[in-house]
Amino acid sequence: MANHGMIVGLDVGTNTVKVLVADVRDKQVNVIAVGRAVSHGVKRGVVVDIDAAANDIRAALAQVTEQTNQTVTEVIASIPATAIQMKAVKGTVAVHDSQHISYADVAAAVEQAVNIPLGQDQAIIDLTPQEFEVDDLTGVVDPNDMVGTHLTLKGIAYSGPRQLVTNLQAAIEKAGLRLRDMVLAPLAYSQTIPSDAEQEFGTVLLDMGAGQTTATIVHNHQIKFISTFTAGGANITKDISTVLNISTKEAENLKLDAGVASPEFANPTNQLTINPVGQEAMRISEVELAEIIGARVQQIVAKLGERLDAVSAFQLPGGMIVAGGSAALKNTAEVLKKEYGVNVKLFMPNEIGLRHPAYVGAWTVVNYAARQTQVALIVKQALYGLPLSFANTQGIPAAGQNKRPAWDNLKTSLTNGIGQSQPDEQLSPGYSGEPEQPRSSTPRRSIGQRVSAWFKELFN
Fold this sequence. Notes:
Layout: E1 5-12, E2 16-25, E3 28-38, E4 42-43, E5 46-47, H1 50-68, E6 74-79, E7 85-94, H2 103-113, E8 122-134, E9 137-140, E10 150-161, H3 163-174, E11 178-184, H4 185-192, H5 196-201, E12 203-208, E13 213-219, E14 222-229, H6 233-244, H7 248-258, E15 271-274, E16 282-285, H8 286-310, E17 320-323, H9 332-340, E18 344-346, H10 360-371, H11 374-384, H12 408-415, E19 427-428, H13 447-459
Parallel strand pairs: 1-6, 6-11, 12-17, 17-18
Antiparallel strand pairs: 1-2, 2-3, 4-5, 7-10, 8-9, 8-10, 12-13, 13-14, 14-19, 15-16
């Protein structure tokens, strides 16, 4: 994989599948096509029906194929932050050629760094290098062609349930595509959405999806904290459907057309017509709808607020940036600003046809891939066995000449994972303490009454 030419980003979400095609030259992204399909095989961001997900991917791809008259053969997929754990890792190797460090030495250091104990059904999903050390020289960004006898990689490894990767990979392959790369969604968000100053001084990123809501703290250009709560826009739709006794489709349309994030922003004079199952059409006020929506919004905001406040996230000068399809709900930014007491801004791509928070996932994947440095790509090759080709590199096979086919390394690590995955409602903490040391080579009724009763059920 190289970060130029045609790059296709894939975001398989709980409600929709988005495909974005871009032409990348000199790290500049030019979006040329976008496709979207309703998602049927995904729950809380995780593929649970491979056949259904594959069909949805094909449907979205058909749209971009029609727009570009080109056949897409490979994609870069976004991985949701479900039960993700962060761990500081360190790998040291003796340099093969003491006169010059090569990218082969970097790859060896990566393999050593991620050779750590993992729980059953867990796998290393992504890895970001923080710095390299060449002998006693610290703070090295790219050690290629430097002189030294030992190379050390210090980085952050992101582990999570194997199913995050294996099921998504199976659906992509069943759709007739090759998986070119995978990117953990918070990583893509953290390096593409905030400005350089916001990444440096500290910012909270809130990804409001359909199946879950994820909070990420970026500070000093690094992710410091990730936490996911398993409720999002799909839960709001289900709440409306349950309380008002209407179909899910009507509930979704009602939410999109007239929904607001809190009753205080609703217009009491605005009357809405609904069609309850088995009853005649009736009218409710916008305030009644907002009470249903606001209850769930408050639950999400409160749960994540407790976790963010525990790590002093609201003291960061960058405030909060909110994105994701559910962020399009009217007055969401105002609710967050009031509850958290920080500056909140909504982010969406500027490109024509993409000006909606729902497209941020696919947009960030493409932009993240376009900005990757050469050493970052080598790290990915070592982690996943990706077929990369670079000019003027030493010891790295050209594309198609890897010792093992693409993804064999990943499949092996996924198959051999050991331990229990963490429930995705638990906190995914930032790393702390010393880097994990490598292990040995051993393997491892009325509207008012319904609303009242439903509130009690929700919060009990």
